[in-house]
Amino acid sequence: MPTNTFPNETGTAAAGTWRLGDRTVHRMGFGSMRLTADPDPATAIRVLRRAVELGVDHIDTAAFYVSPGGTLGVGTGPARYATELIRAALAPYPAELVIATKVGFAAADGELSEANGPEQLRAQVDENLRRLGRDHLDLVNLRIVKRAGRDSVAESFGTLAELRAAGKIRQLGLSNVRVDHLDEAQRIAPVVCVQNSYSLDHNRTDDELVRVCGERGIAYVPFFSLAGSRRESGASHDHSDAVHAVARAHRATPQQVRLAWALHQGPHVLAIPGTGNVDHLAANVAAGAIRLTASELATLG
Ligand SMILES: NC(=O)c1ccc[n+]([C@@H]2O[C@H](COP(=O)([O-])OP(=O)(O)OC[C@H]3O[C@@H](n4cnc5c(N)ncnc54)[C@H](OP(=O)(O)O)[C@@H]3O)[C@@H](O)[C@H]2O)c1
Fold it and tell me: Domain NADP-dependent oxidoreductase: where (predicted)?
């Protein structure tokens, strides 16, 4: 393992900010899915509070981030909801904090399932409000499953647009989508972000969507920027020679280079690396200060 000597306490300011709807957030945010893995909630609470101390003001979550039985499929013991851990750690919430959540799935009785009918979406919004302890949600992403022949987001996104008009939701986004989904949703209500799986060696077909989002002033928020194709299994340790070489040049870790690469894909790209480890959190935030040269970006691909 290379030694990480890159300064780890630089805070989020180095990566700059982006206007997410009517809010401004630092481009280095935090993903909360991993927090549920540790059976001791104190660990998650420590990570969340440290994130905010380091300047993180954009936290991604979902009511279906729960262990055991949610997206990670790990753990035993009583249910630990990321949304409730966020509330325990951070309420009363700092005014500048934007909590992004997502709907379209539900976790019940240890099973995660797609749930995107109007009543299901309304219930999920209410569940997020209840677990987070809020009277409105800052940002809700509609998380879809792409299927040939059943590709319209109109009904689901229309339901969220109604909830936005009613004041329960401030801003809307989309997750796991293509450009045609974005086009359709934008005809219904403003879209402030697209959250898709994307990293330097994974789902690069999204290069075009990253560009389209930039042109339209929409944030592109990659998830699995560390995990890549390992997805829920965790961080990739299979780094290319180019990643290792750039990491050595910056006295950084390969994971930091992966995050820096993501942030270099455009000023509208917002990182949400997930971790349940305070040291990893600090290293990830510090990666926002890495400046890659054009030739380094070319070698990273
Ligand atoms: N919209 C969607 O469908 C969707 C799907 C999945 C996730 N998400 C969101 O995106 C966020 C990011 O995804 P993710 O957390 O699954 O994947 P990720 O950020 O790509 O990688 C997380 C993995 O990397 C490890 N890690 C984090 N920082 C590290 C570091 N500095 N050095 C070494 N290992 C490190 C974590 O383990 P440790 O805990 O040990 O650090 C964890 O195994 C999630 O937290 C969630 O909020 C959205």
Answer: 27-300
